[in-house]
Amino acid sequence: MQLYKEQHLKIYNSLSGQKEDFSPINEGHIGMYVCGPTVYSNVHLGNVRTFMSFDVIFRYLRHLGYKVRYVRNITDAGHLENDADSGEDRIAKKARLEEIEPMEVVQRYTVDFHNILNAFNFLPPSIEPTATGHIIEQIELIKNIIDNGFAYVVNGSVYFDVHKFNASNDYGKLSKRKLEDLIHNTRELDGQSDKKNPQDFALWKRAEPQHIMRWPSPWSDGFPGWHLECTAMSTKYLGEHFDIHGGGMDLKFPHHECEIAQNEAAKGQSPVNYWMHANMLIMNGKKMAKSTGNYILPGEIFTGDNPNISKAYSPSVARFFMLQAHYRSILDFTNEGLLASEKGFNRLMDALSVLNGLSAAERSTIAVKAWKQKCYDAMNDDFNSPILIAQLFEAVKYINQIKDGKASISSEDLNVLKETMQVFIFDVLGLEQSSETSPSGQGKLEGAVEILIKLRQEARVNKDFALSDKIRDELAAVGIQLKDGKDGTTFSIN
Ligand code: AMP
Ligand code: ZN
Predict the structure, then answer these.
(1) Nearest CA to ligand 1 atom 15
(2) Atom 1 of ligand 1: nearest residue by CA position
(3) C-alpha 421 – ligand 1 centre gap (Å)
(4) Contact in structure between 341 and 385 (CB atoms under 8 Å)
(5) Residues 6+ apart with CB under 8 A from 484
(6) For the chain, which residues make up each domain, given as ranges?
(7) What fold characterizes domain 3-278?
(8) Residue 246 in contact with ligand 1 by CB distance below 6 A
(9) Tens digits of per-residue pLDDT, 234-288?
(10) Which among 122, 362, 470, 473 is most buried, taking Cβ atoms within 10 Å?
């Protein structure tokens, strides 16, 4: 029997604002679409957090026995600066600044995105479509929307008529906004004078002569609006009505609101049953974002080369840090948080080694099966990874009690404990027991480096700078960098 028949999953649906019992459209199958990156720069850790939230959701749905078709797009055209309807295309701008082809920009940052996600042990999506690969589908959708009377053409551009749509539908139902409030709050921006109303949004834009990313269409040589690509690609691969649509919280409005409007206008039905939104990673009190310079790159986490952190962290430690927060909570990125997560992660890995060496007794004094169900209960409750992790630490307590002879476990329960730990730590949370964290490998190396740091410190106290420099340089020669800071010396291993 499939696990999903006995485990009752609840998902928080942004559309209803409530946790709902999850039931897919086709039994045993799930269609899930997640908005992918705009590939005009390196992904920062904030982007990674959103994709990680959906990686764990994907992993758990698969673990429950669902056949999941997970579609995550690549935005390689149509996303303008400031998420606006006018201005330069983000990719074209980067191409202009770097004097390369837009598709070189796309290639470079798509490769970077994949490399980073691989480093964090993400599962690949089932389909990864690109916006430029679906121009025809987008043009067809625009034709439908025009035919149904919800869009108008001005000077070769096509706009979605939000006011007309709202007369028969509810524009704002996802983000809980009212059109009247939007009318009061929108400013008329330069270059938007083609629109009947400032709330209208572009489905197709006529390209200015200098705009290099352009395609022919019935209305002009131009390019599609940003919101349209996700409508085209989600419904192409998942059908006009599918189960789950996800993305970062900041995409709820206008991007996802517009997706709903486009679908209802083109096909007469709301596309998605469960809308899911992952919350933001913040740093120094502000949202992590490329545009403000308040960000950290994953590569910097792995080398320790960023002023916000004191040392390097492995991908699994960074992953563990992020999963210790629920996906709908804001997470504050701090060095202290990472240090604590590293300790916690190592404790978990150490307990796994102890677990492998435990022997069974006649009977159990701990309730392993009830504990196992608590792990499922945590994930069934809208994918509550922090509660799951708390349960994993309950198991660490049991393991140490058994090791110390203060508790015992039957061989059947020992197998359940081992299997459940494996499933949740590696399959569901996607953590990896790297050589860096295994006590037999990197742990010993780290211990040895700490000894050398102490010896170097003693040499400096004794004013033996020749020796202290020798220790530093020879460690550097084998790829171990020492970093002197106000709180002492730390190191990174390349
Ligand atoms: P973009 O490439 O800007 O479209 O962003 C890709 C994804 O990263 C989107 O789902 C965003 O919502 C998400 N994102 C951007 N900044 C953050 C952040 N600071 N924390 C979490 N997710 C973010
Ligand atoms: Zn999207």
Answers:
(1) 47
(2) 37
(3) 31
(4) no
(5) none
(6) 3-278, 282-428, 440-493
(7) Rossmann fold (3.40.50)
(8) no
(9) 999 999 999 999 999 999 999 999 999 999 999 999 999 999 999 999 999 999 9
(10) 122
